[in-house]
Fold Coenzyme Q-binding protein COQ10 START domain-containing protein.
Amino acid sequence: MERERSLLFARPMFVGAALAFAMLAGPEAAAGGSAPPDVRVVEVKGTDTPKVVAKGVIDQPPEKVWQVVSECAKYKKRMPRIEASRLVKQEGNKHTCEVTIAMPFPLSNLTAVTEAVHEVSDKGMSRRWKLVRGDYKFNQGSWEVKPHDGGKKSLVVYTVHAEPNTSLPGWIREAAQKKAIPELFERVGEEAAKVK
């Protein structure tokens, strides 16, 4: 399938700031006891690489989920398959982060420096990033966290549109389709539960 060939392996993350390669995900994993996220692939004009949008409910309050997705310096500890992560600089609500995603042998790891804008209000929080430099042709996306069920839970939307400079084998794309995003949501929920 031509469209499927262009999908990316996403490991968020993260990148919340910078992350990366994303794909369609299956319903195998649950987000911290919640239903698995709904994942959509959206065509983007001018590119063969679609955008991936995942939406789900995490059984933790928004403030806790926000701490997990907004602190890029802690991605290595909190997000799946992150080899290294650091906050390069912060100026007001702009956070420049460097995140390296661990790729399976024999592929090289993928590093991106991104600039993310954080917005926080009583209606919710968002982190929107764009690529500054790195191992990608482009890498942009967002985390959006809003109160759900009276603030006891979080409605989370993760969006990523990224393409590495090198092509990825089909077996990696397949693995991403089945695991990447549900695993990401599940891990965010687990880490949010640890936040004091």
Observations:
- Confidence is low (pLDDT under 50) at residues 1-32.
- The chain is about 20% helix and 40% strand.
- Residues 105 and 172 are 11 Å apart (CA to CA).
- The longest strand covers residues 136-148.
